[in-house]
Design brief:
Blueprint (H helix, E strand, L loop, with lengths): L13 H19 L18 E12 L7 E11 L5 E6 L4 H15 L5 E4 L6 E4 L5 E3 L1 H9 L3 E4 L10 H13 L3
Helix pairs in contact: 2-3
């Protein structure tokens, strides 16, 4: 027990020794006082074809054709609530035309649509709140979704009980594909 406390014999070798000792102590203290278990979070389940979440994720990236110039691109993501099937498309902006085109492409890619699409207060999708507490969605988006047999649903300011599944996918995508 005394040997690990002795200073290292070589000059400049003390820092790795301290880290090794702290690592050893951390493992030893975990056996004496185990860490409390993480709380279990129940996964939010929907029926197939019932619900999807739509969102944009922001990326700032450097393109190879213009080195040292950083540009902002947006990832349109569509996640099915039942299977967590993810579809994404990088866009240069979040215009209404782009959002509508991405919806048409994703409905074609998944071979159908969902009954309800959740929007996280996208400015192109949600126009505002009415006095009676209802949310007003963009009429063009409502018309396109209605044509495909779907309906928009804006997420209110409070956190969804399911901990929106799209946010975690977006974070993982950013970690995987974004620089820095």
């Amino acid at each position: 027990m005394f040997q690990p406390f002795q200073p290292p014999t070589s000059a400049g070798g003390s820092r790795p020794w301290v880290f090794r000792w702290l690592y050893y102590l951390d493992g030893f203290s975990a056996t004496l006082r185990p860490r409390p278990p993480r709380p279990f979070e129940r996964r939010f389940e929907t029926a197939p074809g019932e619900q999807a979440q739509v969102d944009f994720a922001e990326f700032v990236t450097e393109f190879t054709d213009e080195p040292s110039v950083y540009r902002k691109v947006w990832l349109f993501s569509f996640v099915l609530g039942n299977s967590r099937w993810l579809w994404g498309w990088f866009c240069s902006n979040q215009s209404l035309e782009r959002v509508l085109r991405c919806h048409v492409m994703v409905f074609d890619a998944c071979g159908g649509t969902t009954q309800q699409n959740l929007f996280d207060r996208m400015k192109t999708a949600v126009l505002g709140d009415a006095e009676d507490g209802t949310v007003t969605c963009n009429p063009a988006l409502v018309a396109v979704l209605d044509h495909y047999g779907s309906a928009p649903e804006a997420v209110t300011g409070q956190r969804l009980p399911d901990a929106p599944f799209n946010q975690y996918k977006g974070i993982r995508l950013k970690q995987k594909y974004a620089k820095g």
